[in-house]
Amino acid sequence: MELRIEDSQLVKEYINGSEKAIEVLINRHNARLTGFIYSKLGDRELTEDIFQDTFMKVIRTLKRGAYNEEGKFLPWVMRIAHNLVIDHFRKNNRMPMYGETESFNIFSMMGDERLNAEKQLIKDQIDSDLANMIRELPQDQQEVLEMRMYKDMSFKEISDNTGVSINTALGRMRYALINLRKLVEANNIVLTN
Amino acid sequence: MEKIYANKKDRCKLVKAKPETIEFLLNYSKSLKVTEAKGIKFESNLN
Predict the structure, then answer these.
(1) A11-44 pLDDT, tens per residue?
(2) What is the per-residue pLDDT across B1-47, written as a single tens digit (0 to 9) for each?
């Protein structure tokens, strides 16, 4: 059975000079903290920055001997991350604040993002037309187009998955789009909602 | 179109900080020294 050292013990060891202890703490809470920050920001690069700033603050506080929340390491770290996220929004004025007034109702801002019945029908038709046209493409072009557009894969990932060079994958994508445009024109299909 | 979603199931990776970020933090930790003089704490970075 694997022996798990408690966070509080690792914190003590780190304060007493064990650099290994902070490595264990960072790796132990990496996914949880990154997920927490990402859920607030929705941006991978920013998440990375806030994660780094959070642990820099943790390290400084521990080294200065200013940590006094023994046994509650993760909530403390999360709180630091949360405050840094708030700071980020403040700095960028990106935290929208709405107050209800006589002329403004908060519910007017809270739209239902679902399409109405007519737009849904049009969207279904477009999806179906597009799917039929994609099926007309050569297999290799279909494959690249589906990976790029539907699975959001990078050309490097497509190259790794299909065993062709990045340039070949780019070329296939280019021809897939050219051929799709030809099919759209040839069939007089309107692909707008 | 259903085959689009069934080809590779391991594409969804857990969001985690990059190894370079962890490496940076560990180096930062090693290089940061806090010294105290007359009740005031001084931070110095030995990099």
Answers:
(1) 999 999 999 999 999 999 999 999 999 988 888 8
(2) 455 554 555 445 567 899 999 999 999 999 998 887 777 877 777 76
Are A38 and A44 in contact by the 8 Å Cβ rule? The answer is yes
Domain boundaries, chain B: 17-47
Tens digits of per-residue pLDDT, A88-106? 988 887 665 656 666 666 5
Residues ≥6 apart with Cβ < 8 Å to B11: A151, A153, A157
Number of CB pairs, chain A paired with chain B, less than 8 A apart: 69
By the 8 A CB rule, do A112 and A119 touch? Answer: no
The top-level CATH class assigned to A117-186 is mainly alpha
ipTM for the whole predicted complex goes beyond 0.90: no
For chain A, the domains span 7-91, 117-186
Which residues of B fall below an 8 Å CB-CB distance to A? 1, 4-5, 7-8, 11, 14-18, 21-22, 24-26, 28-30, 32-34, 41, 43
Which CATH number is associated with domain A7-91? 1.10.1740.10
